[in-house]
Amino acid sequence: MTKLLYITANPFNEERSYGMAVGKAFIDSYKEVHPKDEVTHIDLYSENIPHIDADVFQGWGKLQSGQGFEALSVEEKAKVGRLNELSEQFVEADKYVFVTPLWNLLFPPVMKTYLDSVAVAGKTFKHTEHGTIGLLTDKKALHIQASGGVYSHGPSADKEMGHRYLKVLMGFFGIPSFEGLFVEGHDEMPDKKEEIQADAIARAKDLAETF
């Protein structure tokens, strides 16, 4: 069974968010086209996503030194255990759909926290004598990004770091197929905001058939 992770980083739902509206159109269409696939929604604003902090580093250090999981403190067990759950879930999936707004030229901080939880040596990449190699070579990913301005091309493209970061990281993981779907310009062109959203939703539905 093909497993798809639908990963959203937005405090609002599709009624208030352009990106979430397009994401919902995509995932609804995807489910219709691929009814046997397993789709899991990870709402990063409601999930427990531990930060990599002193507890995590201390816990990892104990495990790497040969101590068992029981040697970890209560806090270390909770955080390290949850991070392991997230990374295992990510590795076991076949497809990823990220939905984010562009905030201050990047995605929301909770997305970075999540990406840190799945960027694990030995799971999503490995170090070799010839350099770092990605391990997810049979996966595919899509990023749906909404922004009030136009950043996918034009004079502001060099300032955009959300989609570019994800593109680099997915490549680092070895994922060979990474696409972007942009919902942008609704603040710069408020008279065209309905047209912008409708066009993005149509593109999302088309993409869902082949993704």
Automatic annotation (TrEMBL):
Q: Does the keyword Flavoprotein apply?
A: yes
What would be an example GO MF term here?
oxidoreductase activity
Catalytic reaction annotation: 2 a quinone + NADH + H(+) = 2 a 1,4-benzosemiquinone + NAD(+); N,N-dimethyl-1,4-phenylenediamine + anthranilate + 2 NAD(+) = 2-(4-dimethylaminophenyl)diazenylbenzoate + 2 NADH + 2 H(+)
The EC category is oxidoreductase
Regions crossing the membrane: none
Cofactor: how bound: Binds 1 FMN per subunit.
Domain Flavodoxin-like fold, residue spans: 3-206
Q: Which cofactor does it need?
A: FMN
User: Which Enzyme Commission number(s) are on file for it?
Assistant: 1.6.5.-, 1.7.1.17
> Which Pfam families does UniProt cross-reference here?
Flavodoxin_2 (PF02525)
Which keywords belong to this entry? Flavoprotein, FMN, NAD, Oxidoreductase
State the protein's purpose: Also exhibits azoreductase activity. Catalyzes the reductive cleavage of the azo bond in aromatic azo compounds to the corresponding amines.
Q: Which HAMAP family match?
A: Azoreductase_type1
Read off the NCBIfam families from this record: PRK13556.1 (NF010075)
Q: Which family does it belong to?
A: Belongs to the azoreductase type 1 family.
Describe, as the record does, how this protein assembles with itself and its partners: Homodimer.
Name the record gives this protein: FMN dependent NADH:quinone oxidoreductase
Record lineage: Bacteria, Bacillati, Bacillota, Bacilli, Bacillales
